[in-house]
Amino acid sequence: MDSIIVTGGSELNGDIPIAGAKNACLTLMPATLLSEDPLTLTNAPRLSDIKTMTTLLESLGTEVTSMQDGQVLAMSSHKLTNLTADYDIVRKMRASILVLGPMLAREGQAVVSLPGGCAIGARPVDLHLKAMEAMGAEIELKDGYVHAKASGGLKGGTVEFPFVSVGATENALMAATLAKGTTVLKNAAREPEIVDLAHCLQAMGAQIDGEGTSTITVQGVDRLGGATHRVVTDRIELGTYMLAPLIAGGSVECLGGTIDLVAAFCEKLDAVGARVEQTDRGIRVSRANGRVAAIDVTTEPFPGFPTDLQAQMMAMLCTANGTSVLEEKIFENRFMHAPELIRMGAQIDVHGGTATVTGVERLKGAPVMATDLRASVSLILAGMAAEGETRVNRVYHLDRGYERVEEKLSNLGATIERIKGE
Ligand code: UD1
After folding, report:
1. Atom of ligand 1 nearest to the CA of 191
2. Which CATH number characterizes residue 329's domain?
3. Domain of 251?
4. Does residue 269 share a domain with residue 172?
5. Contact 247/315 with Cβ under 8 angstroms?
6. Most CB atoms closer than 10 Å: which of 98, 264, 307, 332?
7. How many angstroms separate the alpha carbon of residue 249 from the centre of ligand 1?
8. Are 85 and 183 contained in the same domain?
């Protein structure tokens, strides 16, 4: 497996292009299953998770043509030839469960393996299944597979989520577009990726109101048509690279970034003493002189501080002036980067869902292990602030979510290289 070697101490300056959102693309792609007509996505990120979703859709009968070096995905699901999402593909990526709603809505049946993905907690799919049941589906779990059936098609209903789930909201939203009658999704997720999905579905002919609020109303239609849709900017990649100059020093303009995608995160950057400015090309971030200030962070569903930026924020706070407290409220096991950061000289105490980070003046390079997607990039960020060399091993997860990370960071002046493994 590949490793990444970072040598700390270089300031970062220049611009960095931010890709289309992985998490938006992973829900926009299954939307093709809802229609016989083509769906084309532009601004798609070039990531291994997108390849996994492509393989999954192809296994169901979708034709996927990747153009412009993977940034344009033309999909056609004229006829679904298989209604089983196989374990061998689904286990690689939790977002595979997002084919359930569209297949069920279009064909009245679907069989989907229970998913895998990053090991950041139990991450069950019960809310997805309850939403399908609220729309009239019968669900059975057998041999590690979800068997879902809706003879005569899905029917509109009220789905009240007991807590916010991004994926379950997306699955329910897609399924509801073809259900008979009206569906109301209560306590729905409000993430920009949900709004992006709703806009794409609306372009395909869906009747959706309230996206971006916690109540989404969908009036089912008989069929959806084709569309061309541009994937929204990746707010997590954006936030990650906004932290880079605060960790390493310098001034970086993240091209395509807009503050509305990362407002809660920007408030925290303000509090640590960063300069953050919306320009006509993106967001420019630079560090005022000296160390950043310590702050407290609690992860929450959008519009709160995103859990997907918690590891990267922790990497920065390792060298802040004072003690910071990070509370993880979304996933119960999402501090696996902490022991790795401690190997680099960080002072972190983890108790349950709370991590207390006492800033040190300088981290020291060390060999570390990437444990999940966002943890991997947090170790690279930490390596840029460390003295000497940091070798991040097992970067397989990184490639699921960050395209050409070493190229993007070395263009800014970072000393970073990939060592190819077997
Ligand atoms: C999505 C994102 C992921 C992000 C997460 C939270 C994608 C592909 N992934 O994941 O990067 O970290 O949102 O912002 O978009 N839960 C249940 N039962 C369910 C579903 C979820 O208990 O049926 C729990 C999860 O274990 C977790 C919480 O709900 O504790 C939130 O998860 P959810 O919002 O569903 O995350 P994902 O959609 O999997």
Report:
1. 14
2. 3.65.10.10
3. 3-18+234-419
4. no
5. yes
6. 98
7. 33
8. yes
